[in-house]
Design brief:
434 Repressor (Amino-terminal Domain); 6 helices; about 55% helix; single chain; mainly alpha
């Protein structure tokens, strides 16, 4: 199968920008640029849900398949967590990703 990229003009430019993380001229988001506190709110929501279930951070990280130190950074809002990891964390907590996002008011 031939997987070469064919230049299709504007669409190709949008795809290239998306691959660079520059979709629609938006800067890449990092924890240092989280001026609205979204990552902190999500981390607080995850920590609250974990503590409600009396799980240790290590137990949640292990169940979710995430390194414990990475989980700590997520809970402190120091890590821009991926949708895949939000989904893994939610599953480990026995809820949906949308529940965590709603709890964080996102």
């Amino acid at each position: 199968m031939d997987l070469r990229v064919v230049n299709t003009g504007a669409l190709n430019t949008v795809a290239e920008n998306a691959l660079r993380g520059d979709l629609c001229g938006m800067a890449r988001v990092s924890a240092q640029r989280d001026i609205e506190g979204q990552l902190t709110r999500l981390g607080t929501a995850i920590r609250g849900a974990r503590e409600l279930r009396t799980l240790s951070q290590e137990a949640l990280a292990d169940t979710a398949g995430i390194d414990r130190s990475h989980m700590g950074k997520i809970e402190r809002g120091q890590m821009n967590v991926t949708l895949l990891n939000i989904s893994r964390i939610a599953k480990a907590l026995g809820c949906k990703a949308s529940d965590l996002l709603a709890l964080a008011d996102l």
